[in-house]
Amino acid sequence: MDKKELRKKYTKVRAEVEDKDLKDKLIRKNLRELDIYKKAKSVFVFISYRSEVDTKGIIEDILADGKKLLVPLVKGSQMIAVEVKGIDDLEPNKMGILEPKSGEEVTDVDLTITPGLAFDKAGYRLGYGGGYYDKFFAKVDTIRMGIGYSDQFVESLVHEDYDKPLEYLLTDRGLIEFE
Fold first, then answer.
1. If DSSP codes are grouped into helix, strand and coil, which group holds residue 49?
2. How confident is the model over 25-39, as pLDDT tens digits?
3. How many angstroms separate the CA atoms of 129 and 37, rounded?
4. Does residue 120 have a pLDDT over 90?
5. 3 state SS of 42
6. pLDDT at residue 150 in the model
7. Could you give the count of Cα atoms lying within 13 Å of 144 in the half-sphere of its Cβ?
8. How far apart, in whole angstroms, are the C-alpha atoms of residue 39 and residue 31?
9. pLDDT over 90 (residue 3)
10. Cβ distance 24 to 150 under 8 Å?
11. Is residue 125 within a helix (H) or strand (E), and if so which, with residue range?
């Protein structure tokens, strides 16, 4: 299967995950208990869209825990991290995804929480095909952690030489650390 077919397959898998609310709560709880989260002063997190793990509660926790909240802002073919004070600082972009209206790029990022359609045992993720996170990881030194449902964890995925593997994957079943 090529990446296009894999994206179609795993979009369906993620959309059909059962007990999403419970799994979202477990992921949120698991994140708050992690040392890598506790030690992070700044956290870059995606704004959940469609069937992704719900990050709205995670965003509330980041702010309540006194951390710097960074969210994605897409500029052309690049994605930058921008500091915001909360969800109210965001508006829908042309795809309907919430993002900041504007902002200055922040490159001091302790922890990055990334979405994915699927994640494999070597730490590779299947994204949406824009390469935004790979480009971001190439220029920002940060802990790379995916979050997803245990249903999205697979044996292996097709990946390219430029794909940067994750260091961690957090699911409803706990944390997986990659070599």
1. coil
2. 999 999 999 999 999
3. 27
4. yes
5. strand
6. 96
7. 21
8. 12
9. no
10. no
11. strand 125-126
Question: Would you state the structure tokens that stand for residue 103, as one six-digit string?
Answer: 């902002």
Residues 6+ apart with CB under 8 A from 146: 113, 114, 115, 116, 119, 125, 166, 168, 169, 170
User: Are the C-beta atoms of residues 73 and 79 closer than 8 Å to each other?
Assistant: yes
Backbone angles phi, psi at 177, to 5 degrees: -105, 130
- Token look-up 């960074």 returns 70
Q: In one letter, which amino acid is 104?
A: E
Per-residue pLDDT of 59-74, as tens digits, reads 999 999 999 999 999 9
Angstrom distances, CA of residue 124 to CA of 57, 68, 137, 156, 168 = 25, 27, 13, 8, 10
Q: Is 38 or 96 the better-scoring residue by pLDDT?
A: 38
| Token pair for 144 | 């790379």
Q: Beta-carbon neighbour count of residue 73 at 10 Å?
A: 20
Encoded amino acid at 45, one letter = V
**Residues β-bridged to residue 80:** 73
- Percent helix, strand, coil in the chain, to 5, is 30, 25, 40
